[in-house]
């Protein structure tokens, strides 16, 4: 739900893009889950990509990349309150300012 709030607050910005990578082996589960929860943020089926990219992984993860694709920041998990959205907006703006 917090990711949806973040997406809702940033979807009109032309200076950033939020997307999610889904690592479920069955991509047919994505759409029903998104509809059930009312989520509208973009989802990329990425099981093979993530499994081949990382030696190990934990979910959820948040990655911030700058405009040049440079990996800037990673977070395992996320907060369950509105403070997480505020913190992420600040981190997004900090990455943009440093680009």
Outline of this structure?
It contains four helices and four strands, in the order αβαβαββα. With 99 residues, it is of the alpha+beta class.
Mean pLDDT metric: 89
Spatial separation of the terminal alpha carbons: 29 Å
Give me the secondary-structure category. Answer: alpha+beta
Strand content: 15-25%
Described by the principal axes of the CA atoms, the overall outline is: globular
Number of strands: 4
Helix share bin: 40-55%
Number of helices: 4
* Uncertain runs: none
Rg result: 14 Å
Q: Strand order across the biggest sheet?
A: 1-2
* Main sheet makeup: 2 strands, parallel
Question: Which sequence of SSEs, written as H and E, runs from N to C?
Answer: HEHEHEEH
Please give a structural write-up.
The chain is 41% helix and 17% strand. With 99 residues, it is of the alpha+beta class. The chain has a two-stranded parallel ribbon with strand order 1-2. A two-stranded antiparallel ribbon has the order 3-4. It starts with a helix and ends with a helix.
Any descriptors?
4 helices; alpha+beta; 99 residues; two-stranded parallel ribbon; single chain
What's the arrangement of secondary structure elements?
Layout (H helix, E strand, L loop, with lengths): L1 H9 L9 E3 L7 H8 L5 E3 L1 H7 L7 E5 L5 E6 L5 H17 L1
Helix pairs in contact: 1-4
């Amino acid at each position: 739900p917090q990711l949806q709030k973040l997406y809702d607050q940033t979807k009109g910005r032309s200076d950033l893009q939020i997307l999610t990578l889904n690592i479920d082996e069955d991509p047919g589960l994505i759409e029903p889950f998104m509809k059930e929860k009312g989520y509208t943020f973009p989802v990329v089926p990425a099981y093979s990509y993530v499994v081949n990219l990382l030696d190990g992984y934990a979910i959820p993860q948040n990655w911030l990349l700058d405009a040049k694709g440079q990996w800037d920041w990673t977070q395992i998990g996320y907060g369950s309150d509105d403070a997480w959205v505020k913190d992420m907006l600040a981190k997004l703006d900090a990455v943009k300012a440093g680009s």
